[in-house]
Amino acid sequence: MKYNGKLVRTDLEGFLLDYKQWDIGMVIILAKEENIELTDEHMEVIYFIREFYKKFNISPTMRILVKAIEKVHGKTKGNSKYLFKLFKKGPAQQAAKLAGLPKPSRCL
């Protein structure tokens, strides 16, 4: 992937291979590719998942993501129904992609 004149390495599905190469401007490009119209709610999850990755060095699976968000933001946001409204193809996978993280290990 080319971004701002630089080559950014990705896997075959477009997940960044080095999360440190991520830039906020990439979110707009990646969201377009995923047919997502970004909102503040999307960005809240994207920033959350990036912080999770920095702390635990893994991209959370769906179950882990739901529990982690619930712990911080409560049941209103920490549930799969809410997350699927934001990321229709799979919250853990799409949020990780937009956040510049590796694909969660248990996502198909």
TrEMBL record:
SUPFAM superfamilies, per database record: DsrC, the gamma subunit of dissimilatory sulfite reductase
Keywords from the UniProt entry: Cytoplasm, Transferase
One of the GO biological process terms: tRNA wobble position uridine thiolation
Enzyme class: transferase
Tree of life domain: Bacteria
A GO cellular component entry from the record: cytoplasm
Pfam family name, one: DsrC
Localization terms from the record: Cytoplasm
UniProt-recorded Gene Ontology molecular function terms: sulfur carrier activity; transferase activity
Primary localization: cytoplasm
Active-site residue numbers: 107 (cysteine persulfide intermediate)
E.C. no: 2.8.1.-
InterPro entries (UniProt xref): DsrC-like_C (IPR042072), DsrC-like_dom_sf (IPR025526), DsrC-like_N (IPR043163), DsrC/TusE (IPR007453)
Similarity-based family: Belongs to the dsrC/tusE family.
NCBIfam families: dsrC_tusE_dsvC
Protein task: Part of a sulfur-relay system.
Protein name: Sulfurtransferase
Organism of provenance: Candidatus Photodesmus katoptron Akat1
